[in-house]
Design goal:
The complex is a heterodimer of chains A (312) and B (170).
Chain A (H helix, E strand, L loop, with lengths): L1 E6 L10 E8 L2 E9 L4 E7 L7 E5 L6 E4 L9 H9 L1 E3 L6 E10 L2 H25 L4 E10 L12 H4 L11 E6 L11 E4 L4 E8 L9 H9 L35 H9 L42
Parallel strand pairs in A: 1-7, 8-9, 8-10, 10-12
Antiparallel strand pairs in A: 1-4, 2-3, 2-4, 2-5, 5-6, 11-12
Helix pairs in contact in A: 2-4
Chain B lengths: L2 H19 L8 H11 L5 H13 L1 H14 L3 H25 L7 H27 L2 H10 L6 H13 L4
The chains are: A alpha/beta (312), B mainly alpha (170).
Amino acid sequence: MGNVVVSFPGTTATNPALLLYSGREGANCVSYKPYIANPTVTLPDVSYDPACVAEMDAFAPLFGSFANWVDPAVAGSEAWLTDAIDAGSISIALPDFTLVPLRIWLVANGSLGVTKAQAMRDRLLDKAFPILETMGIGLSLDTASTVLNPTLLPVPFCTNSSSISTNSAIYDVNRINVYFVQNYGNIPNLTPAYNCWLQGHREIIFVSWDNANVVDPTLAHELGHALGLVHPNAVGGHTYQVAGFDAFNLMASNADVTNASIGQLYAFNFSTDSWLNRSGSPFIRPVVRSCQDVWGAGVCPALTLFQPGWPP
Amino acid sequence: MTVKKWWRVATLLGVMACSQDQPILGGLAPDEQDIVLQYLTCIDCVIPLDSVRALASKKAQATVDSLNSGLLLGPGAQAVATVDSVLALGYMRDSSWRVLRGLPPLPLRVVYVSEARQRYVDGYRSRGATGMGWIHTPRAVAHLDSALTLTLPVSVRRAVAYARDSLPPP
């Protein structure tokens, strides 16, 4: 047992890392205990106890996310932790962003429609990139755009998501598919946007380019659904008027986003519900957990978990 | 009057001003008001619209009147002021990020905030109209008719006309 100093090479005082520690601390098992680096984190009285789930997760603005854990089913998987305890220190090199691949379909006819769809795409991407890259989520975007004749797409309703997903001319199986359509359902003002997670297709998103009032964080919000923020089931991960969240959380609905909780960051990266961790994905994380369908703590950190001062 | 009393009066007046600033939601219980407000501020609006329509099946007049308040009054000055401050924070974050990435700057802050605020307010007001269009009781249609006699932002006017003439879809 002893203190373990955790360092995060490359991070800065203005953009410090956040560490979530699970494991034995003193006489207790702790779970997803948050620490903000300054510039290191000192974990007190750490020891290895097979009775405690042991895991370290780290996030920082402008970096990708990190996770490592001790898998009780794999002999020797505790070595990284026991080595850290023996040395009294561990260095966590945060990776680069994971680039989430998007196929953006500009579903429009004629130059005016395409221009409007492009303008909407650009405005929403201009908001999604800084939200993802500066709030410690660990993700960025790799976008590819294609103009699609509206006659080739079924009525843009989520009820058609299954038929869309079987047609390679209008669906990219390796990417999250974002359809900028004139109006969702071909009905003006029905909704600014929609993610088809309820139909089992979280990788299909519609955005209504003819709706002049789509707010800038809309794409980032819909990507939240694609990347695991669909729980608790009753409200699809929406945080509107949920205790512990304000109106400017990523999964609330408003003109801009000022926060995402630590639980939300974790779900983005390490939840089985995240598209990144789907079966056969090249992005599957070293730690993937089936997160609880409640706002509070469980297998994953509570969705309501915030740490004052972070993200910076 | 002591300073303490002055503050109490000032606080009370502030609370009253905020209360008057909120849309009129008479006839609805607080949880029912939340249903309407959730719809008026929605991004994913399909389920919130269903909830508003379900509420209207029980309390048609109060629901329609609440939506009409949303259409006529928008989110209220207090909410807009809060949104303005959050938009300014977002502008700073996004501007710094663009410098880091070597991208061209955003428009001037006053322009950026004004445009984003307008989208927020007009979207809120448009959903007031759209909700009434889906409910389409005579009272809702009368409210929409009345709104069309007013000077409205282009997108809101378009939403009102569509709600009156084309909703609900056949």
